[in-house]
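Lay summary. Proteins are chains of building blocks that fold into shapes, and those shapes determine what they do. In this project we predict the shape from the chain. Here is one chain we studied, written as its sequence of building blocks.
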Amino acid sequence: MFRSKFYRKIHFLIQVPTRALIAVIAAVLLFLPFDRAEAGTLNSSVCLTGKGVTEEEISVKLYEKPYDGTVLKIKSMEIRYSDGLIRRFSGETVEFPGGTAPTLCTGTNDIRFSIKGENFHFYIEALPATVASYAVENAQAELATALYSHISDSIFVTIRKYQSDESEYLLTHVIIEDPSQIHSALANDTYGGKRECPSDASERLGWVVGVNGSNFSWETNRPVYAGVCIKDRKIMEGTAANGMEICLMEDGTLFSPYEGTSGEELLMQGVTDTWSCGDTLLIRDGEAINVGIQSNQYRYPRTAIGMVEPGEYYLITAGSGHYKGGMTYDEVRDVLLAHGCTYGKCMDGGGSSTLVFENEVINVPAEGSGRERAVEDFLYFSERVAIR
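And here is the predicted shape, written in a compact code that computers can read:
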């Protein structure tokens, strides 16, 4: 299930740097009988301030951001009167009706509480649970160990590095708000035309993060191995699937079709794009695929895609350069399973394996640092307003 849309405007907007989880958000606080409050920030707390009818300055700090489903937690309150008197209260002195703090719901919440017999009444606008709120509430440890991260109103990305004596890989976690944010793209927007480096495609198309896609022919520059190739809801080549395809549906679902499924049937099912990938299927319907002896033959630079559910994905980019430090199929599969993936498949690997984040190549390609290979197509993720 996709997370709901992150708020853009409540009564004002605070921009948040995308590479750091700076938990500063805003809400509108309206005290009765006070005038409408204006928002402010203090340190890392959520701080709401307002003016009373006799010019009292009122500030309330919250421990947590007011998202849908969170319990309201007041850290402190400060009232500064026009004669200079200041009264400060800790959150422990706050009493709610019934003795229980309210659970916020999306939209306007009518909040009543008292402090030492003095009653207060205000409104808080709670924000929908979103990609950003997921990150704030559930991914602190993940963010703390990430080499790179990108958090916005519509996409959450972390990239973490893992290595052992024998292998090295980058694990990219992506959560998107809307299925329109996962894309397939052809090199230079042509089928079988001039190939393109992933970083160039990223700059041209506005990626947040993405990887190389299909295996391709060096002679024709077209995808190979698959029985059918679909791009932008059009059958480009072939008539029926052979199981080597990765299919993208319009709702963000990824799957590999069974052999013999016609291209027309795939279109009727809602498939918008495919990638042609000769490497083995790893996970189907949450079940590990036994890939046989080939899985343990050698470690190799690899690109793989895994889907937890439509809207949440993992990418693996394995290798440390010069065709060293790669992974076996079993190792790739087990990492994806450990992160909850219900589908997983390797894409083109070797010298093609490339991870691009914000227009920069993050991994070390198999042929060496700076030796990025031009390929035929790509899988990438964008912000909600996509450049296609």
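What the prediction tells us: The helical segments are 131-138, 140-144, 198-205, 263-269, 329-338.
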